[in-house]
Amino acid sequence: MAAKLVAGRTGRELFELSESEGARLGYQDFLGGTNGNKCGFVGHGVGLELDEYPVIGPLDHTVQSSMTIAIEPKIIYPDKVVLGIEDTFLTTPGGAVCLTNMQREIWQV
């Protein structure tokens, strides 16, 4: 997703990319929730409000340069576990720059 998060793309294009990659990896039945109960987006803008334009979901919001966008795909196994990651990116003319500075490891609670 980060490599495709560039100005000119739409939230719909990025969402469909996420869905197709999830299906390729075998997560299609659990990406964003179970069928009939999916959250319907994988990211959103961050600014004055925590969740704002553009929505990275099945909407035609256009990503522009200098936007701050959180990408947060989740895999939800009902009655078992929710697996997710959220990274925040700044869109630039040369591509997205990750602003999140955390190790990527599984946290067990």
Helix content: 10-25%
Helix count, DSSP H or I runs of 4 or more residues:
1
Number of domains: 1
Stretches where pLDDT is under 50 for at least 5 consecutive residues are: none
What is the total tally of β strands?
7
CATH topology: Creatine Amidinohydrolase
End-to-end separation: 27 Å
Write out the strand line-up for the largest beta sheet, numbering strands in chain order: 2-1-3-6-7
CATH architecture: Alpha-Beta Complex
Going by CATH, the homologous superfamily would be Creatinase/methionine aminopeptidase superfamily
Give the overall shape. globular
Largest sheet, if any? 5 strands, antiparallel
The SSE string, one letter per element, is HEEEEEEE
Residues in β-strands, percent: 25-35%
Overall pLDDT score: 88
What class, by secondary structure content?
alpha+beta
Cα-based radius of gyration, to the nearest Å: 14 Å
CATH class: Alpha Beta
Please provide a brief summary of the model:
With 109 residues, the protein is an alpha+beta fold.
Structure write-up:
The chain is of the alpha+beta class. It has one domain: Creatinase/methionine aminopeptidase superfamily (Creatine Amidinohydrolase). It is built from one helix and seven strands; from the N terminus they run αβββββββ. The strands form two sheets. Strands 2-1-3-6-7 form a five-stranded antiparallel sheet. Strands 4-5 form a two-stranded antiparallel ribbon. The longest helix is centred in the N-terminal third of the chain and has 14 residues. The mean pLDDT is 88.
